[in-house]
UniProtKB/TrEMBL annotation:
Positions of short motif Meso-diaminopimelate recognition motif: 408-411
Gene3D superfamilies: Mur ligase, C-terminal domain, Mur-like, catalytic domain, MurE/MurF, N-terminal domain
Primary gene name: murE
A Pfam family of this chain: Mur_ligase_M
Post-translational modification note: Carboxylation is probably crucial for Mg(2+) binding and, consequently, for the gamma-phosphate positioning of ATP.
Essential cofactor(s): Mg(2+)
Name the UniProt record assigns to this protein: UDP-N-acetylmuramoyl-L-alanyl-D-glutamate--2,6-diaminopimelate ligase
Mur ligase C-terminal domain mapped to chain residues: 335-459
Length: 491
């Protein structure tokens, strides 16, 4: 693409030398992967500053540089006010505004994003539509999957994924939008059609200055709704009206609104709810009529996720019968309230609860039908929100009968410090077993018929990250192995 064409839509910029007729082969934001003929865009990040890597990019063959200030290079430099916005805009132009040609559904909130995207994927596929999904577990484009580093990718990768979706004849892109992504402009230039808000509770206060800053970042998805180039289509915000923060989110958008809830009077509601050990039954009440749902997904929080997904599906013209089929046939998401059954006499559940609210919800759900005692095995990640640690411990102590604290990706931190942060205020008894496998084994060996064991925090993860090294570790695999061993060699 001609550099001049790329710059056509950039409102303000200046160049250090004439661009003549430069053709850009690609866009790069990382000197390590810059290729010949690339436009290298310097991003001042959280850890590093791309302006310091211009020479490396030049050595790799970059043709032109975009920066926020003058940099030492023999290449022409395009100077803009904000390279983060410019990167998103350039990527969008380079790939032909792919998000305009897709129905894009974005899901934000502290908990439930991954689950809702998977539910939506099942609904759309049941309706014979091709989907693309971007989120915590992976990127999947018409069935082809890619591993991910982030829940929401940087704007350059995002636009590339959208372009690939178009090529694969995908009609709907369903993606998780994290608060980090919103704060770092990773979704600038992305033309969302539907934005969903799940809930907002304590998390990521290592990154955001305070809860209000976290809320402000999340609400950007709604404030930016309709800001894309395609102003023709009607945009919708889908908001959980039962959330304490619902009003703030509703106020942040000028687009059309659809609400959902259980306690508040909302557009989409669940009535006559029955929660049990095998799932949730309820009447789904919508502007398109009512339908009875009998889903294998457990817990009240799962109903909220289904209501949000139903809202987006209805706005996309999908019939209630298709939505019902998806909710009833779903096998759930890996590591989200996933039962482990190896013939043992008690229940074992793997769940990705890694915030105080989700841990509380998961334990509450178990306590609704557990006839015996509840065991929980849980830890807190290192190099992540330190302030949530005592609250995680409280959620475990308040709702479980036996608590075993253990490691969950200590990363560069000393696990002892993490335990100290979690437990220094506690007076009631708990156990502390640093080795996660031993902690799980301890719980599984003690549980009796009628008890429930919740192994929380890692869900689908297949690693334990210690000092920058990821060791293979899979809660589900470990629990199965221990249960099998116990069956073969009962003690
Ligand atoms: C703290 C944080 O959010 N960091 C994210 C951020 O990195 P950063 O700003 O520090 O950027 P950087 O990679 O150090 O460098 C800045 C620039 O210099 C360039 N560079 C750097 C080094 C070099 O040799 N050459 C070079 O050109 C980089 O390519 C980049 O353009 O931008 C990167 C690109 O988008 C992200 O991959 C990275 O996520 C890191 C890996 C991360 O762990 N982030 C977590 C906290 C996160 O974002 N989590 C949320 C989900 C949270 C949730 O569960 O809700 C997510 O969306 O994943
Ligand atoms: N609607 C909800 N409300 C509260 N807790 C929920 C809800 N949905 C799921 N959870 C809990 O949160 C955990 C994570 O769910 P999920 O992966 O869907 O959320 P997420 O928002 O994608 O999380 P992350 O930000 O880590 O990617 C689940 O394992 C469950 O314990
Ligand atoms: N997306 C979350 C995942 C946390 C999962 C938990 N296992 C941990 O490592 O802390 C985060 O990056 O904060
Ligand atoms: Mg997720």
């Amino acid at each position: 693409m001609k550099m001049k064409k790329l710059l056509k839509l950039m409102p303000f910029y200046k160049v250090t030398q004439p661009l003549s007729d430069i053709t850009v082969q690609g866009i790069s934001m990382d000197s390590r992967s810059t290729g010949p003929g690339d436009l290298f865009i310097c991003i001042h990040g959280v850890e590093a500053d791309g302006h310091e890597y211009v020479q490396e990019a030049e050595a790799k063959g970059a043709a032109v540089v975009m920066a926020e200030r003058e940099v030492t290079t023999s290449l022409p430099v395009v100077i803009v006010n904000d390279t983060v916005r410019a990167l998103a805009m350039a990527a969008s132009i380079f790939y032909g505004f792919p998000s305009e040609h897709l129905r894009v559904i974005g899901v934000t909130g502290t908990n439930g994003k991954t689950t809702i995207t998977y539910l939506l994927d099942e609904i759309f596929r049941n309706n014979n539509q091709r989907t693309g999904m971007i989120g915590t577990i992976q990127v999947s484009i018409a069935g082809k999957t890619y591993p991910v580093k982030n829940t929401t990718p940087d704007s350059l990768s995002l636009q590339r994924y959208f372009a690939e979706m178009r090529k694969a004849k995908v009609t709907t892109a369903i993606m998780e939008v994290s608060s980090h992504a919103l704060d770092q402009g990773r979704v600038y230039g992305c033309d969302f059609d539907i934005a969903i808000f799940t809930n907002l509770t304590r998390d990521h206060l290592d990154y955001h200055d305070n809860f209000d800053d976290y809320l402000r970042a999340k609400s950007l998805l709604f404030a930016q709704l309709g800001n894309g180039y395609n102003k023709g289509r009607r945009k919708f915000a889908i908001i959980n009206k039962d959330s304490e923060q619902a009003k703030r989110f509703i106020r942040s958008t000028s687009q059309s609104l659809l609400t959902y809830g259980i306690h508040s009077n909302a557009d989409i509601m669940a009535k006559n709810i029955t929660l049990g050990e095998t799932g949730a039954a309820y009447i789904l009440k919508t502007p398109k009529g009512e339908i009875a749902i009998n889903s294998p997904l457990m817990g009240l929080f799962s109903i909220y996720n289904m209501l949000a997904a139903a809202g987006a599906a209805i706005l996309s013209g999908i019939p209630l019968t298709v939505i019902k089929h998806a909710f009833e046939m779903t096998r759930g998401v890996r590591g989200r309230f996933e039962p482990v059954r190896e013939g043992q006499e008690y229940g074992v559940v793997i769940d990705y609860a890694h915030t105080p609210d989700s841990l509380e919800n998961a334990l509450n759900t178990l306590s609704e039908f557990c006839k015996g005692s509840i065991y929980v095995v849980v830890g807190c990640g290192g190099d992540r929100d330190r302030s949530k640690r005592p609250y995680m411990a409280d959620a475990a102590m308040n709702r479980a009968d036996y608590v075993i604290f253990t490691t969950d990706n200590p990363r560069s931190e000393d696990p002892k410090q993490i335990f100290q942060d979690m437990t220094s205020h506690l007076s009631d008894p708990f156990e502390l077993i640093e080795d996660r496998e031993q902690a799980i084994e301890h719980a599984l060996k003690r549980a009796k018929s009628g008890d429930m064991v919740l192994i929380a925090g890692k869900g689908h993860e297949t690693y334990q990250e210690v000092n920058g090294v990821r060791h293979h570790f899979d809660d589900s695999e470990v629990a199965k192995m221990i249960l099998k061993r116990m069956k073969e060699r009962p003690s």
